[in-house]
Structure to design on (134 residues):
């Protein structure tokens, strides 16, 4: 995985205020407010900051939690996992492995029929790229 190391000034110039707050400052969008929550097109979900492919539409499901949810990333090397003890909780933060953008958190309450994991991701942290039609 190629690492992308840009100064904070770069991200402030190239992201919207909301994208910067969520992706670089580890913010969270309000539940049920994200544009990709009910999104159902075929394609991949990429990192907003660096466009690294992170999740497939095939792994997206409706968890009812208020944020886009996936049961697995495209590959193990695209996600970085960090302990997160903020807000009085013990969680696992997920970040883009390429640019270190905050994506959300992963929980072990996902679909038992697949991975059992729920990657709970901010819509703002994702950029959708649909499958090309020939």
């Amino acid at each position: 995985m190629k690492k992308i190391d840009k100064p904070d000034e770069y991200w402030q110039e190239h992201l919207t205020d909301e994208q910067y707050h969520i992706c670089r400052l580890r913010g969270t969008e309000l539940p049920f407010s994200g544009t990709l929550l009910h999104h159902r097109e075929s394609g991949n979900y990429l990192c907003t900051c660096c466009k690294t492919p992170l999740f497939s539409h095939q792994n997206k499901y409706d968890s009812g939690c208020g944020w886009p949810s996936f049961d697995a990333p495209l590959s193990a090397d695209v996600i970085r996992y960090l302990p997160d003890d903020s807000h009085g909780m013990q969680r696992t933060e997920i970040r883009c492995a390429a640019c270190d953008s905050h994506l959300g958190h992963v929980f072990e309450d996902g679909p038992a029929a697949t991975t059992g994991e729920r990657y709970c991701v901010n819509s703002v942290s994702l950029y959708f790229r649909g499958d090309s039609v020939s």
Remarks:
- The longest strand covers residues 79-84.
